[in-house]
Amino acid sequence: MMNIEDALREIRTKPLVPLWPHLGLVFDMSRGSVYAAARTGQFDIFRYGKDGKRMKALTAPIRKRLGMDAA
After folding, report:
1. CB 58 within 8 A of CB 44
2. Which residue of 18, 19, 35, 70 sits 20 to 30 Å from the alpha carbon of 9, by its own alpha carbon?
3. What is the pTM of this model?
4. Residue pair 46/55 in contact by the 8 Å Cβ criterion
5. b (16+ CB within 10 A) / e for 12-49
6. Is residue 49 part of a domain?
7. Cis ω for the linkage preceding 21 (within 30 of 0)
8. Would 40 be classed as within a structural domain?
């Protein structure tokens, strides 16, 4: 099971991460809330898959939002 430290490490080191559980842990959101926020543009996402329904979160905007990147 992933914990917040694991999620933050992956956000720091990878260009894309799964929406769930990463963003749920970091922003203290339920699974449904994370996907709803992604659909409404609150998170920058990359859509992929044959039908474009699969999503991953872009980590650069998340790092900026969390103050992880230098200004």
Report:
1. yes
2. 35
3. 0.88
4. yes
5. eeeebbbbbbbbbbbeebeeeebbebbeeeebebeeee
6. yes
7. yes
8. yes
